Amino acid sequence: MKIQIINGPNLNLLGVREKSIYGNTDFDTYLNDLRHRYPAVEIDYYQSNVEGEIINKIHEVGFTSDGIVINAGAYTHTSIAIADAIAAIKSPVIEVHISNVYKREEFRHHSMLAASCKGVIAGFGMDSYRLAVENLINV
Ligand code: DQA
C-alpha cells in the first residue's frame, strides 16, 4: 500500500514556526515515527511552498497512490486550482490541519478543498496526519 503525504506552504518550518499553534516537532521526526508505526505501508512525503508544484504532485501520484493526505496550509482557504486537481484524480484525498482552524481567524474557517476530499481532520496537532493515514489503511 502506498500513501502520499503532501504539505503546502510554510509547513517546512514545523518545529520552528509559531510553536504555540503548531508544536515543537519538525515534520521529518514525526514522519519517521509514522513510518515506524506502519512498516507495511509506503509513506511518501512531499512539501512545497509553490501552488503549481503541489498541483503537479497531485497529478503525478493521483492515479496510482492508495490515498493522499494533504495539508495545503493557507492554500486550503484560497486555491480553486488545488481543489480542481483533487477533483480530477482517482485517489482518495484527506484534508488535514494541525490546528483547529475553527477556533482561529474567520478566514481559516472555509476550505476550498474540502468538498473535493473524502473528509477533513483538523485540530489534533501532528496526530491529525496519523488519523488520516489510519483511515486510508483501514478502508
Ligand atoms: C494549517 C492551518 C492553515 O490555516 C494555515 O494557513 C497553515 C497550517 C494547519 O495545519 O493548521 O499553514 O493548515
UniProtKB/TrEMBL annotation:
Keywords linked to the UniProt accession: Amino-acid biosynthesis, Aromatic amino acid biosynthesis, Lyase
Site (Transition state stabilizer): R17
Record's catalysed reaction(s): 3-dehydroquinate = 3-dehydroshikimate + H2O
Entry superkingdom: Bacteria
Gene Ontology biological process: amino acid biosynthetic process; aromatic amino acid family biosynthetic process; chorismate biosynthetic process; quinate catabolic process
Database matches in PROSITE patterns: DEHYDROQUINASE_II
Positions with a binding annotation for substrate: N71, H77, D84, I98, S99, R108
Active site: Y22, H97
Known pathway: Metabolic intermediate biosynthesis; chorismate biosynthesis; chorismate from D-erythrose 4-phosphate and phosphoenolpyruvate: step 3/7
E.C. code: 4.2.1.10
Family in the record: Belongs to the type-II 3-dehydroquinase family.
HAMAP family: AroQ (MF_00169)
NCBIfam families named among the record's database cross-references: aroQ, PRK05395.1-2, PRK05395.1-3, PRK05395.1-4
Primary role: Catalyzes a trans-dehydration via an enolate intermediate.
PANTHER family named among the record's database cross-references: CATABOLIC 3-DEHYDROQUINASE
Full protein name: 3-dehydroquinate dehydratase
Species for this entry: Mucilaginibacter xinganensis
This protein's encoding gene: aroQ
